[in-house]
């Protein structure tokens, strides 16, 4: 279990070195490959490289009429009132689903500087894979938090285009 300090440390020390060129598809599943490069806290120049994939499910539209079906377990009455307010509005929310396929994650340790390893991973990434790949620098303990921060950034970058696609198709 991570402490709040561990989580904050991981978030603050996550840097996306190379971001995928494409966004989450509006009408299908999208797969991103990631390389997460992290230096060991107690061993200088010992770097762990994790290689895996993340599946982003098709965004779902939550219309005002469906806000009441949102699970708000543990939320206050004020949060429930806000959900009811949203029900009466014209707003729509996109729900994104990610599946981090940990069985696809491999890792290996190398001995070099963090900068040299990041450079090498970047250079060795095949050009054909760059559009759907990310290189992330993070922390070894809490690497999953680094990966989740990356997924939030991908969602933020994709949301505007997804909303335009849904409007263009008359779904919003």
Rg calculated over all Cα atoms? 19 Å
Summarize the main sheet.
5 strands, mixed
Average pLDDT reading: 85
The ordered string of helix (H) and strand (E) elements is: HEEEEHEEHEH
Number of helices: 4
- Write down the domain tally: 2
**What percentage of amino acids are in beta strands?**
25-35%
Oligomer: single chain
First-to-last CA distance: 40 Å
Anisotropy-based shape: flat
Helix content: 25-40%
Strand order of the largest sheet: 1-7-2-3-6
The count of strands amounts to: 7
> Which structural class do you get from the secondary structure elements?
alpha+beta
Question: What do you see in this structure?
Answer:
By secondary structure, the chain is of the alpha+beta class. It folds into two domains: 4-59 and 96-168, no CATH class; 62-95, no CATH class. Helix content is 34%, strand content 30%. It is built from four helices and seven strands. It has helices spanning 4-12, 77-88, 114-124, 143-168; strands at 15-18, 30-39, 46-56, 60-62, 93-95, 98-111, 133-139. The protein has a five-stranded mixed β-sheet with strand order 1-7-2-3-6, with helices on both faces. The chain has a two-stranded antiparallel ribbon with strand order 4-5. The longest helix has 26 residues, at 143-168. It is flat, with a radius of gyration of 19 Å. The mean pLDDT is 85.
């Amino acid at each position: 279990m991570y402490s709040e300090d561990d989580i904050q440390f991981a978030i603050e020390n996550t840097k996306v070195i190379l971001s995928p060129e494409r966004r989450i598809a509006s009408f299908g599943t999208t797969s991103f490959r990631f390389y997460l490069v992290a230096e060991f806290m107690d061993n200088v120049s010992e770097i762990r490289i994790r290689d895996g994939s993340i599946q982003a499910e098709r965004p779902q539209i939550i219309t005002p009429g469906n806000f009441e079906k949102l699970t708000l377990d543990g939320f206050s009455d004020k949060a429930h009132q806000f959900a009811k307010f949203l029900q009466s509005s014209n707003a729509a929310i996109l729900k994104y689903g990610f599946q981090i396929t940990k069985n696809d994650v491999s890792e290996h340790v190398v001995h070099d500087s963090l900068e040299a390893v990041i450079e090498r991973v970047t250079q060795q990434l095949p050009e054909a894979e760059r559009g759907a790949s990310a290189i992330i620098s993070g922390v070894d303990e809490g690497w999953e938090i680094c990966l989740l921060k990356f997924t939030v950034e991908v969602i933020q970058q994709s949301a505007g285009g997804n909303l335009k696609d849904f409007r263009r198709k008359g779904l919003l």
